[in-house]
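Closing statement on the N-(5'-phosphopyridoxyl)-D-alanine sub-project.
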Amino acid sequence: MSSTPAESTGQTVFLNGEFMPIESARVPVLDRGFIFGDGVYEVVPVYGGRAFRWPQHFARLERSLAKIRLANPRSSQQWTELVAELVRLHPWRDQFVYLQVTRGVAKRDHAFPKGATPTVFAMSSEFVALAPQLREHGVPVVTRPDERWLHCDIKSISLLGNVLARQEAADADAFECVMFRDGFLTEGSSSNIWVVRDGTVFCPPLDRLVLEGIRVGLIGELCAASGTPLEVRRILREEVFAADELMLSSATREVVPITRIDGQAVGSGAPGPVYARLYAAYQAAKAA
Ligand code: PDD
């Protein structure tokens, strides 16, 4: 593995075994990621140089690869070293690392190519914390029908459904788009969604309709540790609108209070006590 130091202004990325400035990284147009969206990815937060919940992220990457029938081109140790090196090459205290594997470069044909070498790409960006006023007041969301495919458990780079949903939020000056399928909550365009009612936290089952967010496991642990009841079950749209509190979670946003949904106040209209408790516990988990 060759490496070059990060330029003072730019990012150094990893592509197929080499580190290089982001401007120099090139992928052939016949890469199946470009042609078919045929690949998977991960987003891993890094705090103080340490990849947070790395074993869980790596395990999910392995599951995503297995589900698209793509052999992992790197060993666990190689991935771990790659992430560590990428983080080391950048000056930011907190970062988030993006990892992507595609089925590689091959003549365009939908069926899997024989003998193609998977494309491995990784980059790190500065982790920019959410603006304090958004934590203080909470964020608005819009809702839409979930029109994505039936394998949302795979962290696929084919994100058109998520992109279109997020744009609906952007068009409405909202922070996130919360999606429903057949009247039940699924997730946000790039986050998991949490409902609080009468002190109990609810989240939808982690089936094929929802990505198994790494923060879902973490928040489950934080609920258990703080004696906050957690119920995993299907959640009706009406229950979401009747919530005392709503929250979203993701690698890049951590846990965020939602205080408006389709223009309507959530509970009191301000971030609630369960959010405050879980956010504090999240910060403590990062520092541990
Ligand atoms: N997205 N659901 C979807 C559809 C997501 O894209 C994400 C994360 C999550 C939350 O998962 P986690 O807690 O592991 O970040 C749920 C990442 C951040 C992204 O695509 O940038």
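The pocket of N-(5'-phosphopyridoxyl)-D-alanine is lined by residues 43, 162, 187, 190-192, 211, 213-215, 249-252 (CB under 6 Å). With this model delivered, the sub-project is considered complete and its resources will be redirected to Aim 3.
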